[in-house]
Design brief:
Blueprint: H1 2-30, H2 37-55, H3 62-80, H4 92-121, H5 125-146
Helix pairs in contact: 2-3, 3-4, 4-5
């Protein structure tokens, strides 16, 4: 009987260790790289941009489209003043050029969003949709240039 108890105790101990080992990686995932404020604002912008894709096609949704465009413009202005985390990995002699490029890309985004807003206000849906397509390409290019390879939204 005593060997049964010892055997059970060993089994329970081994089971407990196995469960701890399985849980440890999950705890690590929860503590994974925290998103920066810039990343959070960019994700908000991306969510609005995705909604804009469908609303911009429908004249009955112009009010919603204009609201989304305004939100994206405001977020872009906020993000323009922030520093991408990738800047820390850029060699010091190239960092100023990197930051200048980022700020210019964000300024172009704001300008293109304002042009899209003007096109919608003028009733030129084709121009607004053309700008949306351009911005989609610009977004992908900008993310390639300015996001860390391991950034949470780089995979999108």
């Amino acid at each position: 009987m005593s060997s049964f108890k010892n055997g059970s105790a060993v089994r329970i101990t081994l089971l407990s260790l196995a469960l701890c080992c399985m849980a440890a990686p999950r705890v690590g995932l929860a503590e994974e790289k925290k998103k920066s404020e810039l990343n959070n604002r960019m994700e908000e912008m991306d969510a609005s941009f995705k909604k804009l894709k469908s609303s911009i096609r429908n004249a009955q949704q112009d009010a919603q489209s204009l609201e989304l465009i305004s939100k994206i413009e405001q977020l872009a202005i906020t993000c323009k003043a922030m520093t991408p985390s990738k800047a820390a990995t850029v060699p010091a002699d190239k960092r100023d050029a990197f930051l200048l490029g980022y700020r210019k890309e964000m300024a172009h985004l704001v300008a293109d969003m304002c042009a899209m807003e003007t096109a919608l206000l003028d009733g030129d849906r084709a121009k607004a949709q053309e700008l949306y397509k351009k911005l989609t390409t610009d977004k992908e290019d900008g993310h390639d240039k300015f996001l860390d390879d391991d950034a949470p939204d780089k995979a999108k």
